[in-house]
Amino acid sequence: MEIAEWGVSMKQQSKNPKDLDLDAARVSHDSGYLTTNQGVGISNTDDALKAGKRGPTLMEDFIFREKVTHFDHERIPERIVHARGSGAHGYFQVYKNLTHLTKAHFLSDPKLVTPVFVRFSTVAGFRGSADTVRDVRGFAVKFYTQEGNYDIVGNNMPVFFIQDAIKFPDLIHALKPEPNNEMPQAASAHDTFWDFVVNTPETMHNVMWLMSPRAVPKSYRMMEGFGINTFRLVNAKGEFKFVKFHWKPILGVHSLVWDEAQKAAGKDPDFNRRDLWENIENGNPAEFELGIQVLAPEDEFKFDFDILDCTKLWPEELIPVQKIGKMTLNQNPDNFFAETEQVAFCPANVVPGIDFTNDPMLQGRLFSYLDTQISRLGGPNFQQLPINRPLPKVNNNQRDGMHRMTIDKGQTSYYPNSLNMGEPHAARAGESHFEHYQEKVDGHIVRERSESFRDHYTQPALFWNSMSDWERKHIIDAFRFELGKCKNKNTHQKLVDMLGNVDPELAQKVAEGLGATPPANTANPTTVSSAALSMANTANSPKTRKVAILIGNGFDKAQFDAITSALTAAGACFDVVSCKLGPATAQDNSTVECTQTYTTTAAVFYDAVYIPGGSHIESLKGSADVQSFLGDTFNHYKTIGLSGEATAMLTLLRPGQNAEPGVICDLTGNMKSYTAAFLEGLTQGRHFQRKL
After folding, report:
1. Among the residues of 199-309, which ranges form H helices?
2. What is the mean pLDDT of each run of 10 residues along the chain (692 residues)?
């Protein structure tokens, strides 16, 4: 389908991404008889061909050989980084015409629906690692635009560890399991990583983010995304602006606490993957607004940081984020391998109107991503895999190569030619094509770094200054945990000395936990803060939050009905948890189906717990499972609801004490006011003012 024709049909289609399929590659296997890969029918795929029922298997059994050969070769090399991933389909729409900034067509018309595929991931771990480890998270978006595929390949943190891509192999070698013993898996708490950090001061800013709650997101649906590098937007007049890309989650930015993250890793390694999948299946799409920070070229050098340094962010107070569109992820993949595993992202995948800058990390990424896909996906034709195919017709003279999937007709495979009337021809005026911005470059060829890249501590201090009390506590505890796992005491001291360049209090408290010596004569390099950097200022909503309702025989059905009705109306969801599956009998002899037990679920999977009143409280008070459930909920700062006789459960939380913040109690029986209070606590999420 030609570009113009496709653009018209897109406006007529629905916003279901599976109505916007890239091709006819999806195949249903709901009916019909078994065949070989050559289409030959098979009557038995359970028994190999033998010489007699107990005799040897015959090599002539082509059905057996094909089946096992395919199995032996069905794994491909996993990604070196971002191996552990989860994907979803969706669509994007811009809010208004942005042709004054860029000639990118998908940003020109609010009526245009652009299909997308997004892959979220961890960075350090192998494919089989857990979701909730402390790590940077990948946030990669592929736009299937009318002018070709465009990728924003980013992370959930706006800055990177290093400034120049030539150091990337060193960073990842240090971060990965140590080569002598292949440990630890999916963790940065070990000697080689921190040895690299203390010898590479430019890592300090990203390390501050890595020690923050951002490194343990509660959900892929509740984390920000950042393009990290600086790009250009170019309009039809050839004018450009510098730009950084942001993804802002509609549900706000929320995280796990560290004890919760560790327990979730053991109880469900697929914690984040399952959350994304189940919410999309249940009709709760993941929604993000696309924001841009735009900077005029004449303002390139007006700040105390270099805008091309990817270890620096652009403070939103200086350069506001403009929200320009919305992305909705509302369809799960049909096949994890074919889509999520085989999707290939690359920052070099741009469309007319979006261009690169001299950011040295970006320049290296433009080569590295393409190079690794050739190795991982078996050759230069990986773009022909269905998930990677662009929507417009691919029209060039490239031929052959491993895994070639197109059958290219014609005599000529070169340009210029006369035998094919000069076709395909170079794009002419009026035909969509990419043009690099013509920047004048003049300088000596050197292996050096700009002086403007050498401040490694002002922005980490900005980040620290912007944190709330509970975020600061998380960062301090994270440094103590991570460095506490390192055997090299010299690394402890070097790290504390580095932190002295960020903030004296931070260095002092980390030193206390490590038994190191606090650095002398420290000073915070800046007193500036940014409200945009603190998760304390994020949006909160009860929508899709999950509540565990604990019951036993003899619970109060009226209170149960009141809370479940309120949760459903607010867009929240719930599980009924008891000591066994099946019906539980209420005081009025009605029943409710229990969907989880204390052995099949745990408090870490819920945002709140509610216990209705009734005679069941006596049995619940004596249950070690209930005590553990309530204890984890309380210690993870989540909302606890107790109504009627259930208020007696307070003694399990803090004997002799009144209710703590976020513990919603009621003895009056006024369920209307009680449910409102419980929903308010659920909406707030964590209650960090609670003193543990």
Report:
1. 204-210, 258-267, 271-281
2. 35 50 70 90 93 93 91 92 97 98 98 98 97 98 97 98 96 96 96 98 98 98 98 97 98 98 97 98 98 98 97 98 98 97 96 96 94 92 95 92 92 92 90 90 90 97 98 98 97 97 96 95 89 97 98 97 97 98 97 97 98 96 95 96 93 68 85 94 95 74
* Cβ atoms of residues 98 and 324 within 8 Å: yes
Instruction: Domain of residue 240: give its range.
Output: 85-388
The answer to whether residues 165 and 196 belong to one domain is yes
Catalytic residue among 89, 105, 149, 155: 155
Same domain, yes or no: 348 and 203: yes
Amino acid at 99: T
For 145, the enclosing helix (H) or strand (E) is strand 137-145
In a domain, 90, yes or no: yes
Domain CATH number, residue 597: 3.40.50.880
Specify the number of domains making up the chain. Answer: 3
Active site residue 82: yes
**Phi and psi angles of residue 440, each rounded to the nearest 5 degrees, phi first:** -80, 130
**What does the alpha-carbon distance between residue 315 and residue 300 come to, in Å, rounded to a whole number?**
14
* 155 classed as catalytic: yes
pTM of the model: 0.94
Closest by CA to 179, choosing from 160, 193, 158, is 193
